[in-house]
Amino acid sequence: MRSIIIGLILLVAIALLSQTISAQSLDQIQWTLTVNSAETNHISMTLSGYNPNPFTWTHGFPNAAWAFYSIDGDVQSYMVPPMSIYITIQAGETLTEPMDHYAYVPPGIHSLQAHALTAAGYVPLGIPVEVNIEPVSNVDGTALPLLMTVYPNPCHGSLSITGQAIKSGTARISVFNLKGQKIRDLDVMRPSDGSFTVVWDGKDMNSKPVQSGVYIIRKIHEGGSETRRVTLIR
Protein backbone atom coordinates (compact mmCIF):
# COMPACT_ATOMS: atom_id res chain seq x y z
CA MET A 1 0.00 0.00 0.00
CA ARG A 2 2.83 2.35 0.88
CA SER A 3 4.53 1.75 -2.47
CA ILE A 4 1.27 2.55 -4.28
CA ILE A 5 0.92 5.86 -2.41
CA ILE A 6 4.55 6.77 -3.14
CA GLY A 7 3.99 5.93 -6.81
CA LEU A 8 0.92 8.17 -6.98
CA ILE A 9 2.83 11.02 -5.33
CA LEU A 10 5.64 10.65 -7.87
CA LEU A 11 3.17 10.72 -10.77
CA VAL A 12 1.56 13.92 -9.45
CA ALA A 13 4.99 15.49 -8.94
CA ILE A 14 6.06 14.61 -12.48
CA ALA A 15 2.85 16.08 -13.89
CA LEU A 16 3.31 19.32 -11.96
CA LEU A 17 6.97 19.51 -12.99
CA SER A 18 6.12 19.07 -16.67
CA GLN A 19 3.62 21.93 -16.47
CA THR A 20 6.18 24.14 -14.70
CA ILE A 21 8.84 23.39 -17.31
CA SER A 22 6.35 24.16 -20.09
CA ALA A 23 5.57 27.55 -18.60
CA GLN A 24 9.19 28.39 -17.77
CA SER A 25 10.43 27.47 -21.23
CA LEU A 26 8.05 30.01 -22.75
CA ASP A 27 8.77 32.60 -20.09
CA GLN A 28 12.52 32.41 -20.76
CA ILE A 29 12.10 33.08 -24.47
CA GLN A 30 12.68 36.68 -25.50
CA TRP A 31 10.08 38.23 -27.78
CA THR A 32 9.19 41.51 -29.36
CA LEU A 33 5.59 42.44 -30.07
CA THR A 34 5.10 44.79 -33.02
CA VAL A 35 1.82 46.36 -34.07
CA ASN A 36 1.89 46.51 -37.86
CA SER A 37 -1.36 48.45 -38.19
CA ALA A 38 -4.01 49.60 -35.76
CA GLU A 39 -7.50 50.84 -36.41
CA THR A 40 -10.97 49.96 -35.22
CA ASN A 41 -11.87 46.39 -36.22
CA HIS A 42 -8.34 45.64 -37.38
CA ILE A 43 -5.07 44.96 -35.60
CA SER A 44 -2.13 43.19 -37.17
CA MET A 45 0.63 42.11 -34.78
CA THR A 46 3.92 40.28 -35.12
CA LEU A 47 5.71 38.21 -32.49
CA SER A 48 9.46 37.99 -33.15
CA GLY A 49 11.60 35.43 -31.34
CA TYR A 50 15.23 36.38 -30.92
CA ASN A 51 16.30 33.56 -28.65
CA PRO A 52 19.73 32.19 -29.66
CA ASN A 53 18.45 28.70 -30.56
CA PRO A 54 15.42 27.51 -32.52
CA PHE A 55 12.48 26.98 -30.20
CA THR A 56 9.59 24.61 -30.78
CA TRP A 57 6.46 25.03 -28.69
CA THR A 58 4.72 21.66 -28.67
CA HIS A 59 1.23 22.03 -27.28
CA GLY A 60 0.81 18.57 -25.80
CA PHE A 61 -2.86 19.33 -25.14
CA PRO A 62 -5.72 20.06 -27.56
CA ASN A 63 -6.83 23.56 -26.57
CA ALA A 64 -3.69 25.60 -27.17
CA ALA A 65 -4.13 29.16 -28.34
CA TRP A 66 -2.42 32.52 -28.61
CA ALA A 67 -4.06 35.58 -27.09
CA PHE A 68 -3.38 39.31 -27.04
CA TYR A 69 -4.61 40.84 -23.80
CA SER A 70 -5.24 44.46 -22.94
CA ILE A 71 -3.52 45.26 -19.63
CA ASP A 72 -4.80 48.82 -19.20
CA GLY A 73 -7.97 47.84 -17.37
CA ASP A 74 -9.99 47.23 -20.51
CA VAL A 75 -12.23 44.20 -20.06
CA GLN A 76 -11.71 42.95 -23.59
CA SER A 77 -9.26 40.25 -24.58
CA TYR A 78 -8.20 39.62 -28.14
CA MET A 79 -8.38 35.90 -28.74
CA VAL A 80 -6.67 33.95 -31.47
CA PRO A 81 -8.29 30.54 -32.17
CA PRO A 82 -6.19 27.37 -31.73
CA MET A 83 -3.34 27.05 -34.19
CA SER A 84 -1.34 24.05 -35.40
CA ILE A 85 -0.15 21.17 -33.23
CA TYR A 86 3.29 22.72 -32.89
CA ILE A 87 4.93 26.03 -33.68
CA THR A 88 8.65 26.37 -34.38
CA ILE A 89 10.22 29.81 -34.11
CA GLN A 90 13.78 30.22 -35.39
CA ALA A 91 16.01 33.00 -34.09
CA GLY A 92 14.85 36.20 -35.77
CA GLU A 93 11.75 34.53 -37.22
CA THR A 94 8.35 36.16 -36.87
CA LEU A 95 4.79 35.01 -36.37
CA THR A 96 2.18 37.46 -37.69
CA GLU A 97 -1.48 37.35 -36.67
CA PRO A 98 -4.06 39.67 -38.27
CA MET A 99 -6.76 40.41 -35.73
CA ASP A 100 -9.45 41.83 -38.01
CA HIS A 101 -11.56 38.68 -37.80
CA TYR A 102 -11.13 38.21 -34.07
CA ALA A 103 -11.86 41.40 -32.20
CA TYR A 104 -13.56 44.74 -32.13
CA VAL A 105 -11.04 47.19 -30.72
CA PRO A 106 -12.48 50.42 -29.31
CA PRO A 107 -10.75 53.71 -30.18
CA GLY A 108 -8.18 54.99 -27.70
CA ILE A 109 -4.73 54.18 -26.35
CA HIS A 110 -4.29 50.59 -25.19
CA SER A 111 -1.40 48.64 -23.72
CA LEU A 112 -1.34 45.17 -25.25
CA GLN A 113 0.70 42.12 -24.32
CA ALA A 114 0.94 38.74 -26.01
CA HIS A 115 0.20 35.62 -23.99
CA ALA A 116 0.63 31.94 -24.85
CA LEU A 117 -1.70 29.33 -23.38
CA THR A 118 0.24 26.45 -21.80
CA ALA A 119 -0.76 23.57 -19.57
CA ALA A 120 0.00 25.85 -16.64
CA GLY A 121 -2.16 28.71 -17.93
CA TYR A 122 -1.47 31.89 -19.89
CA VAL A 123 2.18 32.95 -19.94
CA PRO A 124 3.11 36.54 -20.94
CA LEU A 125 5.55 36.90 -23.83
CA GLY A 126 7.78 39.94 -24.08
CA ILE A 127 6.99 43.47 -22.99
CA PRO A 128 3.69 45.35 -23.47
CA VAL A 129 3.20 47.60 -26.49
CA GLU A 130 1.22 50.84 -26.42
CA VAL A 131 -1.22 51.16 -29.32
CA ASN A 132 -3.31 54.12 -30.44
CA ILE A 133 -6.50 52.79 -32.03
CA GLU A 134 -7.92 55.30 -34.50
CA PRO A 135 -11.71 55.41 -35.06
CA VAL A 136 -12.86 54.28 -38.49
CA SER A 137 -15.18 56.65 -40.36
CA ASN A 138 -17.86 55.71 -42.85
CA VAL A 139 -18.58 57.41 -46.16
CA ASP A 140 -19.95 60.66 -44.74
CA GLY A 141 -17.08 61.00 -42.27
CA THR A 142 -18.96 60.18 -39.07
CA ALA A 143 -17.47 57.63 -36.71
CA LEU A 144 -19.15 54.23 -36.67
CA PRO A 145 -20.94 53.48 -33.37
CA LEU A 146 -20.65 50.36 -31.25
CA LEU A 147 -23.01 48.02 -33.04
CA MET A 148 -23.72 45.08 -30.72
CA THR A 149 -25.31 44.87 -27.27
CA VAL A 150 -25.33 41.75 -25.12
CA TYR A 151 -27.64 41.55 -22.11
CA PRO A 152 -28.08 40.65 -19.36
CA ASN A 153 -24.43 40.45 -18.38
CA PRO A 154 -23.85 38.50 -16.18
CA CYS A 155 -26.55 36.11 -17.35
CA HIS A 156 -28.09 33.06 -15.72
CA GLY A 157 -28.68 30.72 -18.63
CA SER A 158 -29.59 32.78 -21.69
CA LEU A 159 -28.83 36.20 -23.14
CA SER A 160 -29.97 38.43 -25.99
CA ILE A 161 -27.66 39.84 -28.65
CA THR A 162 -29.03 42.88 -30.46
CA GLY A 163 -27.70 45.70 -32.56
CA GLN A 164 -27.32 47.34 -35.94
CA ALA A 165 -25.12 46.09 -38.76
CA ILE A 166 -23.21 48.29 -41.16
CA LYS A 167 -24.53 46.49 -44.23
CA SER A 168 -27.50 44.28 -44.95
CA GLY A 169 -27.08 40.55 -45.40
CA THR A 170 -26.16 37.71 -43.08
CA ALA A 171 -24.16 38.22 -39.90
CA ARG A 172 -22.42 35.30 -38.21
CA ILE A 173 -22.40 35.36 -34.44
CA SER A 174 -20.22 32.80 -32.66
CA VAL A 175 -19.61 31.94 -29.02
CA PHE A 176 -16.10 31.04 -27.82
CA ASN A 177 -14.64 30.11 -24.46
CA LEU A 178 -11.46 31.73 -23.17
CA LYS A 179 -9.35 28.91 -24.63
CA GLY A 180 -10.42 29.95 -28.12
CA GLN A 181 -12.70 26.93 -28.60
CA LYS A 182 -15.84 27.62 -30.60
CA ILE A 183 -18.89 26.73 -28.53
CA ARG A 184 -21.62 27.51 -31.03
CA ASP A 185 -22.49 29.44 -34.21
CA LEU A 186 -25.58 31.64 -34.32
CA ASP A 187 -26.36 32.63 -37.91
CA VAL A 188 -28.68 35.61 -38.20
CA MET A 189 -30.60 36.83 -41.23
CA ARG A 190 -31.18 40.54 -40.80
CA PRO A 191 -33.91 42.69 -42.35
CA SER A 192 -33.01 45.38 -44.84
CA ASP A 193 -32.63 48.04 -42.13
CA GLY A 194 -29.66 46.10 -40.73
CA SER A 195 -31.05 45.43 -37.26
CA PHE A 196 -30.71 41.99 -35.70
CA THR A 197 -31.70 40.08 -32.57
CA VAL A 198 -30.61 36.61 -31.53
CA VAL A 199 -30.82 34.68 -28.26
CA TRP A 200 -28.10 32.35 -26.99
CA ASP A 201 -29.62 29.81 -24.64
CA GLY A 202 -26.34 28.98 -22.92
CA LYS A 203 -25.93 25.70 -24.80
CA ASP A 204 -23.19 24.37 -27.05
CA MET A 205 -23.49 23.01 -30.60
CA ASN A 206 -24.66 19.68 -29.15
CA SER A 207 -27.50 21.39 -27.23
CA LYS A 208 -25.76 20.74 -23.91
CA PRO A 209 -25.66 23.52 -21.28
CA VAL A 210 -22.19 25.02 -20.94
CA GLN A 211 -20.50 25.52 -17.60
CA SER A 212 -20.42 28.78 -15.67
CA GLY A 213 -17.62 31.05 -16.82
CA VAL A 214 -16.58 33.86 -19.13
CA TYR A 215 -17.38 33.56 -22.85
CA ILE A 216 -16.60 35.62 -25.94
CA ILE A 217 -19.46 36.66 -28.25
CA ARG A 218 -18.06 37.50 -31.69
CA LYS A 219 -20.02 38.98 -34.58
CA ILE A 220 -18.57 38.95 -38.08
CA HIS A 221 -20.37 40.75 -40.89
CA GLU A 222 -19.52 42.26 -44.24
CA GLY A 223 -18.47 45.56 -42.69
CA GLY A 224 -16.20 44.21 -39.95
CA SER A 225 -16.42 42.39 -36.62
CA GLU A 226 -17.03 42.94 -32.91
CA THR A 227 -16.52 40.98 -29.71
CA ARG A 228 -18.04 41.15 -26.25
CA ARG A 229 -17.17 39.28 -23.07
CA VAL A 230 -20.05 37.82 -21.09
CA THR A 231 -20.21 36.01 -17.77
CA LEU A 232 -22.56 33.04 -17.45
CA ILE A 233 -23.57 32.00 -13.94
CA ARG A 234 -25.47 28.76 -13.37
Describe it for me?
By secondary structure, the chain is mainly beta. The protein has two domains: 29-133, Sandwich (Immunoglobulin-like); 148-232, Immunoglobulin-like, CATH 2.60.40.4070. It has one helix at residues 2-27; strands at residues 31-39, 42-49, 55-58, 66-70, 77-80, 86-89, 94-98, 108-118, 121-133, 148-151, 159-164, 170-177, 182-189, 195-200, 213-221, 224-232. A four-stranded antiparallel sheet has the order 5-4-8-9. A four-stranded antiparallel sheet has the order 13-12-15-16, with no helix packed on it. The longest helix has 26 residues, at 2-27. It is globular. Mean pLDDT is 60; it is low at 4-24, 55-65, 71-87, 97-104 and 136-146.
